[in-house]
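Input sequence (120 aa), recorded before submission:
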Amino acid sequence: QVHLVESGGGSVQAGESLTLSCTAPGRISRIDTMGWSRRAPGTARDMVARITSSGGTSYADSVKGRFTISRDTAKNTVYLQMNRLKPDDTGVYYCYALGLYKGSTGGNYWGQGTQVTVSS
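Predicted structure, token format:
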């Protein structure tokens, strides 16, 4: 079992920035894809951004041009730089790691979530 550790959430005003980070601790052999999803109040969880092991990225249309995802493979860490935040960005942000291998054992893992609140 791997417990992803998230940090960086908080409360900000519209137009401000936040950076989320998520680390997979322990001896990790490989992580295929890392990313973030978001659950806004009263809605289902949606993909926000993801990044593959080769550095390919994809974003939800609502965050393109404002959010940037990156990863530090050596640290097994993924970051989400969120700029020009809007009230609609409010929600619980969940980190995930797909194809995370410790030796030959692989699986998919999710973080506990970190709250982001953007007020107008």
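Checked by second reader. The two ends are 39 Å apart (CA to CA).
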